[in-house]
Amino acid sequence: MAKHITKEDKIKIVTLKEAGVKNLEIMNKFKISKATFFRIIQRYKLMNNINRKKGSGRPKIFNESEIDIIKSKVKKI
Questions:
Q1: How far apart, in whole angstroms, are the C-alpha atoms of residue 4 and residue 9?
Q2: Cα–Cα distance measured from residue 33 to residue 37, given in angstroms and rounded to the nearest whole number
Q3: Distance of CA 11 to CAs 6, 19, 65, Å?
Q4: Quick one: DSSP state of residue 62?
Q5: How many CB atoms lie within 10 A of CB 13?
Q6: pLDDT of 76 strictly over 90
Q7: What angle do CA 36, 38, 41 make, to 5 degrees?
Q8: Which CATH architecture has domain 1-53?
Q9: Is the pTM here over 0.70, yes or no?
Q10: Helix (H, G, I), strand (E, B), or coil: what is residue 26?
Q11: 23 Cβ contact partners less than 8 Å away, ≥ 6 residues apart
C-alpha cells in the first residue's frame, strides 16, 4: 500500500515548487511518484489549496440512525 502524504508535506512540496526547485529533486526528497507530484501541484493550481474536496472519499454504509439501532441491538445481546 502506498504511503500517505501529510498535509504538511503537500504544503512543503508546493512551496518548493514555487521557489523554483526542480521537480525531480522534490520527487526524490519526498519519495513520491511523478503522478503524485503533479496531482498535488494540479490540485493546488485549480483550487488554490491542497485540501481534499469536501465529500470526497468512500461513502458511509450506514447512516447515524441505523448505527444507533445496531448499537442498541448489540447491547441487548
A1: 10
A2: 6
A3: 9, 12, 38
A4: S
A5: 24
A6: no
A7: 110
A8: Orthogonal Bundle (1.10)
A9: no
A10: helix
A11: 17, 34, 37
* Alpha helices (H) along the chain: 7-18, 23-30, 34-47, 64-76
> Residue 14: which residues within 8 A CB-CB, separation 6 or more?
40, 41, 44, 50
What integer pLDDT is reported at residue 2 of this predicted model? 63
Copy the grid coordinates of residue 60.
458511509
Distance CA 22, CA 70 (A): 53
Query: From CA 64, how far away is CA 21, in angstroms rounded?
Result: 47
Cβ-based neighbour number of residue 43 at 10 Å: 17
First to last CA, the chain: 37
